[in-house]
Design goal:
Length: 158
């Protein structure tokens, strides 16, 4: 795959993703998509070797979106909004453990518990950021994450 093919495939996907994350701000969405593609261009050789290209692209776009909110001194996107804007697991490439199907994970934990894991692992929010938005303490958030990981390990035989 060359960069042009990569760009043609990923730019529209990331633009739509950024459009949702910026509450339909067309200019910000274009800027975020362009910055994401620029980051991919700068790291293209190593990106092609990355085991999860889709996850890298989404995480980069999400980090650029966070910077956009900080730079523009707007309220951080609330967790509830992020939860409604999750890309599919196929898009993120997120796997708790290699070879464990998404359906098996949902047999062990609820969708709300999965959202907590995704906010932390895919969206890269800190436990403090999640806790603040959820109205719980950071220690409580860390404990929930720890218990979820343990629950998955025990029930999935890892």
């Amino acid at each position: 795959m060359d960069y042009e093919q990569f760009y043609n495939h990923w730019y529209p996907i990331i633009y739509k993703y950024a459009f949702r994350l910026t509450y339909s701000n067309k200019d910000a969405s274009e800027e975020i998509a362009q910055e994401t593609m620029l980051a991919a261009y700068k790291n293209f050789a190593s990106l092609l070797q990355h085991p999860n290209i889709g996850g890298w692209v989404y995480l980069t776009a999400q980090n650029i979106t966070k910077n956009y909110w900080r730079k523009n001194k707007k309220d951080k996107m609330c967790v509830d909004q992020m939860e409604n804007e999750f890309p599919s697991l196929e898009e993120t490439g997120y796997e708790f453990a290699e070879g464990i199907p998404y359906e098996d994970i949902l047999e062990v934990i609820s969708r709300d518990e999965l959202k907590l894991l995704l906010l932390y692992h895919v969206y890269g929010l800190s436990a403090t950021e999640i806790a603040t938005q959820k109205g719980i303490t950071t220690a409580s958030c860390n404990m929930r994450l720890s218990r979820l990981k343990k629950k998955l390990k025990i029930n999935l035989g890892l």
